[in-house]
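tool_call: predict_structure(chain=1)
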Amino acid sequence: MPEDQLQATSKAARTRERILDAALDEFSAKGYSGARTAAIAKRAGVNVQLISYYFGGKEGLLEELLTSWQKRRSKLVPASKAEPFLESFRMVLNATLRDPRRARLVVWQALGDYPGDTEALAREWRTVAAAAVEQTRARQAAGEISDGHPPEFVTLLSFLLAFAPVALPQVIEEIYDVDPLSEEYRQRVSEALAAFLDVRHA
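tool_result:
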């Protein structure tokens, strides 16, 4: 490919990434309904028409972000099956809290602020939840974690500990007196969960 075409392709890719990052800021702060393409364009420093050109509009932007989140999550799940329970939980916790903007999108979706196929979204989450429960059940059967609690509850508790700092940061601050997104929070809840589940180290 000629040098000028390479430069144009690289510039277009950088522009797309700036728009996506700006959209993630806007959607996570205001939800889909509250977000405005003009505000996204201003954050990204681009002409608003480029959003339509690259993504087809606001809904296309959101779908692109959700697709990238699904790919990121799918990379975590296979790895977590091979990792010990505590390391697996820490991976999910870190992925959620190091950049909580994507987790905020999940919270907005849970509140009903989603323009797409809500039934398909619900089916997707049922699949994710069912796989997580089965994984927990398998860990209990293998003796890696205590079987004294239902696998559904253990799975729910893991999700809640990861999402609470995003959905209820003020509650975390009051309970732990730490930054909800901090390493200290992650360390404390990881240790507490390990003790609660009587985690056996391989």
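agent: Residues 3-34 form the longest helix (32 residues). Proceeding to next step.
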